[in-house]
Amino acid sequence: MTASPLIQSKIIELCEALVADGDVKNARLQAETFLADDAAMSLYREMATLGRALHQKQHHDEEPTAEEISRFNGLQDRCESNPVISGFLGAQNILSGVAEAVNAFVGKSLESGRVPSPEEMVKKGGCGEGCGCHH
Predict the structure, then answer these.
(1) pTM surpassing 0.70?
(2) How far apart are CA 24 and CA 127, in angstroms?
(3) In degrees rounded to 5, what are phi and psi of residue 116?
(4) How does DSSP assign 41-100, residue by residue?
(5) What is the DSSP-derived secondary structure letter of residue 3?
(6) Is residue 115 part of a domain?
(7) Cα–Cα distance measured from residue 46 to residue 112, given in angstroms and rounded to the nearest whole number
């Protein structure tokens, strides 16, 4: 690590806070539960693989067949109704959200030379339509 001893100690302090956080602990537990469930992993992997294949087809200006779309929708419905998979997807959102928040705050601090306020870090949604971030 090339950071100063002070920065290293603060990084360790942040990591200690992360692993002690209840939401993070719960998210990790849900992710571990998913990884230990071979049936859930297999179902999710099958849906994801078919989804990628259909995306590739569309990317190459090929239309997926009605059967492929139906099969994908069925797999997606089964994944959404599986509590282990749903828990895993929720856990992914929590963990990636925490990582994004940490990265954003650190990046803004390095960029601006000061600690940003929480208000500065709230996304304004000003990236425009069509960027893929609008839900």
Answers:
(1) yes
(2) 29
(3) -75, 150
(4) HHHHHHHHHHHHHHHHHHHTT-PPPHHHHHHHHHHHHHHHH-HHHHHHHHHHHHHHHHHH
(5) S
(6) no
(7) 45
Question: Is 128 among the domain residues?
Answer: no
Residue 69 reports pLDDT greater than 80: yes
Cα dihedral sign, 8-13-19-23: negative
Burial per residue of 54-83, b for 16 or more beta-carbon CB atoms within 10 angstroms, e otherwise? beeeeeeeeebeeeeeebbeebeeebeebe
How does pLDDT run across 14-45, given as a tens digit for each residue?
Answer: 999 999 999 999 999 999 999 999 999 999 99
Mean pLDDT of the chain: 90
Give me the domain span that covers residue 45: 22-108
* Spatial separation of the C-alpha atoms in residues 89 and 51, rounded to whole Å: 16
Kindly write down the DSSP assignment for every residue of 102-133, as one continuous string. HHHHHHHHHHHSSPPPHHHHS---TT-TTSS-
Q: What tokens does 77 get?
A: 């419905």
Domain count, the chain: 1
Residue 83 lies in a domain: yes
Question: Rounded to whole angstroms, how far apart are CA atoms 88 and 35?
Answer: 9
Domain contains 9: no
